[in-house]
Amino acid sequence: MWLGRIRSACIHIDSEKLGRDLSLERKPVYPPAMRLPVRSLVFVAVSAALVTTSATAEKTPALAGLLRHANEDFGRSAESASIFQNTFIKMAGDIASILGPRKLGPSTTSGSLGFDLGVDIALSTVDEGSAHWANALPGDDGLMNTVALQFRKGLPFGFELGGDVAHLADSDLWALGLNLKYTFLEGYSYLPEAALRVGFWGVAGSRELDLVIISTDLAVSKEFGLGGVVAIAPYFTYGLLVAMASTNVVGYFPAGEALPVNGVVPTQTITVNRGGLGFRLLFPYSALSVEAVFSPGVQTYTTSVSLVL
C-alpha cells in the first residue's frame, strides 16, 4: 500500500513539473485583431511602388538648364561659370538628400539571426522656386516620390548589415547603397538604445551627373510594449551626408547659334546636415514605420512596411 502511495505522489509531482515546462515553452498566442496582415501590407506597398514608378523621365533634373541660366542671365564669363557651379552644388546636395540613406529606424538590432525585408515609400518636398530647381525642372511641383526595397541582416556583437535600392519616380535616377550599423547602447531598462551607422551610396541613371554619397548617422530610441503583443519604438536621428558630385560635359544650343555651349563642373565635396524623428510599430513577423527627415531645402516623409523574421 505504501509503495502505491509513493508511486502516485511521484506521478503527481512529475505531472506538475511537466506542466510547468510545457507552459514555459509554449509560445504566446496573439489575438487575431492585433496581428498586422503582412500579405496585405506587402500587396499595398508593392502596388504603390508600381503606381509611382513609370517609364517617363519628367523628374530627371536637366543640368543643361543650370548652364543655360548661368550664361543667359549673367553672360558668358567667369561669374557665369561660378553661378553654374554653385547651382549645381545645391542641386547635387538636394538629390543626395532625396536618394541617399533610407530610413534608419530604431537603434536596436534584429539579433544575429534576424532578417528584415521592407518596402519604403517616401515623399520629399523641395523649393521648386529656387534657381536650381526652377531651371533644371521648369514648372515642376516640387514633390519627389521615391520607392525603395530595403533589407537588414543582424550580425553578432550588436552589428547589423543593411542595404537598399531606391528609385525616384518619373525619372531615370536610381540609388544603390550598403550600410553597417553598430548598437553600442542596448538592453538597459532605464536607458535608451543608441546606434551609429555608416553607409555608402551611388546614384546612377543620368548621363550628366556623377554622384557618390557617404553617410554617418546617430540614432537614439526606446522601445515600449503595448498590450503585450505590439511594441512601439520612437526614435530621433541626426546624420551627416558627404556627397562627391561632378558633371560630365553639359551643353545646350543657344537660340540662333549652330554650335553648342558646353560646361563641366569638377568634383565637388558637399556636406548636408539632416535631423529626423519617427516611430516603429513592431507586430509579430511584421513592422510599420513612419519617419520625417529634415535637411536644408529638402523635407522627406517616409512610410515603410517590413517583414521581420
Describe the structure.
- With 309 residues, the protein is of the alpha+beta class.
- It has a single domain (34-308), classed as Lipocalin (Beta Barrel), CATH 2.40.128.
- The chain is 26% helix and 44% strand.
- 36% of the residues are buried.
- Residues 1-7 and 9-37 have low confidence and may be disordered.
pLDDT under 50 segments (min length 5)? 1-7, 9-37
- The CATH topology assignment is Lipocalin
> Which class in CATH terms?
Mainly Beta
How many domains make up the 3D coordinates?
Answer: 1
> Which architecture does the CATH hierarchy give at level 2?
Beta Barrel
H-E string: HHHHEHEEEEEEEEEEEE
Biggest sheet layout: 10 strands, antiparallel, barrel
Summarize the amount of helix as a percent range. Answer: 25-40%
How much of the residues is beta strand, in percent? 35-45%
Q: Tell me the number of strands.
A: 13
The CA-CA distance between the termini, in Å, is: 55 Å
In one word, what is the shape?
A: elongated
The count of helical stretches stands at 5
Query: Which strands sit side by side, in order, in the main sheet?
Result: 1-2-3-4-5-6-8-11-12-13
Structural class: alpha+beta
What is the radius of gyration computed over CA atoms, rounded to a whole number of angstroms? 26 Å
